[in-house]
Amino acid sequence: MNPSSSAEVIVAIIPIVGIVMGFAVVFFHLLWSHRRKMLLIQTKQYQTPDFDLDAFSLFAGLILAVVGICLTAFLGIFTKSGLTLLGGVIPLACGCALLLFFFINRTVNSPQ
């Protein structure tokens, strides 16, 4: 076995080890978070977290729309290809949909 083939094996193993370690970190975080919540529920100390859907949809919609506009403009200028523009059009469409949801939700839920 020459040094180059052993180096190739090591280089091939590094991403696999990284993925396994990342999975282990996520798994144990979810497990301990679940156990903590169950313990808080049993002791009647659990409080549900507040989530502001309007603020989230506005924030995420603005970010996605701006990123989509920038990517669409950049890819339109430099590539001039139809399928490549999907890299910018997809976030733009998602951002516009979230902004539309925000405005519709605000008008439906506004007090008359």
What are the main properties of this structure?
112 residues, mainly alpha, 2 domains, 3 helices, flat
Question: Overview of this structure, please?
Answer:
The protein has 112 residues and is an all-alpha fold. It has two domains: 1-48; 53-106. 80% of the residues lie in helices and 0% in strands. The radius of gyration is 23 Å and the shape is flat. The mean pLDDT is 89.
Beta content? under 5%
Note the overall shape: flat
What kind of sheet is the major sheet? none
What's the helical proportion of residues?
over 70%
Quick check: average pLDDT?
89
Which runs of at least 5 residues are low in confidence (pLDDT < 50)? none
- What structural class is derived from the secondary structure elements? mainly alpha
End-to-end C-alpha gap: 78 Å
Give Rg in angstroms: 23 Å
Number of beta-strand segments: 0
How many domains? The number is: 2
Number of helices: 3
Element string (H = helix, E = strand):
HHH
Short description:
By secondary structure, this protein is an all-alpha fold. The protein contains 3 helices and no strands. It folds into 2 domains: 1-48; 53-106.
Which SSEs are present, and which pair or pack?
Blueprint: H1 3-42, H2 53-78, H3 86-109
Helix pairs in contact: 2-3
